[in-house]
Amino acid sequence: MGKKLEAGGLRESSRIMLTEHKGGIRRDERETWHSLRPVLDEQKLEEIEHTLALSLRSHVRVTLVLYGPQEQVKLSGFVTSIHTHSREFKLQWAEEWKWLLVDDIVEAYIV
Fold first, then answer.
1. What is the reported pTM?
2. pLDDT at 33
3. Between 2.30.30.100, 3.40.228.10, 3.40.50.1820, 3.60.15.10, what CATH number should domain 42-110 receive?
């Protein structure tokens, strides 16, 4: 065991990122990303929630503008499921779908 450490084993292993460190880095990135997100007022948030519910009930296409760290992302599709307890919803377009957070939306409107 001593030879392995002396032969570069310790040095080689020190270059590997531990899972705990990787998780901490990701958490820090997420916290920074969330702190830069614009804060929406209550009325705007209610409008977004109403638009998502309308898309779900009436099966109409909704266009969303999502906050991104570098730039805003625009997605368009149909809301097929809403989880109010976790504030997430499923957006589907063509044969693809994605779970998104309501808190990531900057703007939502019906096409």
1. 0.66
2. 47
3. 2.30.30.100
